[in-house]
Amino acid sequence: MKIIKISSKVEALKVATEEIPEGSSSICLTAGNFGTTLLDSWIDIDLDISSWEIFLTDERLTSSKEDQNGFVLAKKISKLIGFNSQNLNIFNQANTPYEMHSNITEKLNSNAISKFDLCFLSLGEDGHLAGHFSNSNILPDTRFCYTDEASKKPKKRISFNLDWLMLSTKVILVVLGKEKQEALMELMSDRAIHSNIWDSENLILITDIF
Description:
The structure is a single chain. By secondary structure, this protein is of the alpha/beta class. The chain has a single domain (2-207), classed as Rossmann fold (3-Layer(aba) Sandwich). Helix content is 28%, strand content 20%.
């Protein structure tokens, strides 16, 4: 694991972008404030994504498009150079967890993607990563997990299982702001749901907390 200390969100965005491995083809993006801001920064620098197969770490089951990670991020991703809608893979809005990830499963299997080249993550104040919460249940396809009692609304969330995301060649975890300090300390001290990732050799932590 590698820790990169930064002093501002602007610096975090720059460093995160510089850490993208050359030749990456499969990228998994987090949503939330950091994910949307990261995409804005890529739009500003005219980042070319023509060679990327893009996935999102998780999705919310909701009728409101403004609360859907796929809808929010797709609007920004579509502004990037080289965007191809066929290479953007988002979870379905469906009645069952299986139906929500069936299209993702098909793309992973058809493209023989056994792991991502790069995964971006941001730590939640309650310690969750991606959409993998303490009460998430691993699905029969163990690459995914699901909960209908997430800590914030919308309550129903599907996500890649964090253990599967951590197989990625490189994982960039961004933790910004004092409000996330307690969650980060718990992650580091083996008291959090995902503390098992802390010593992963492929993990890069970008933070302004230390």
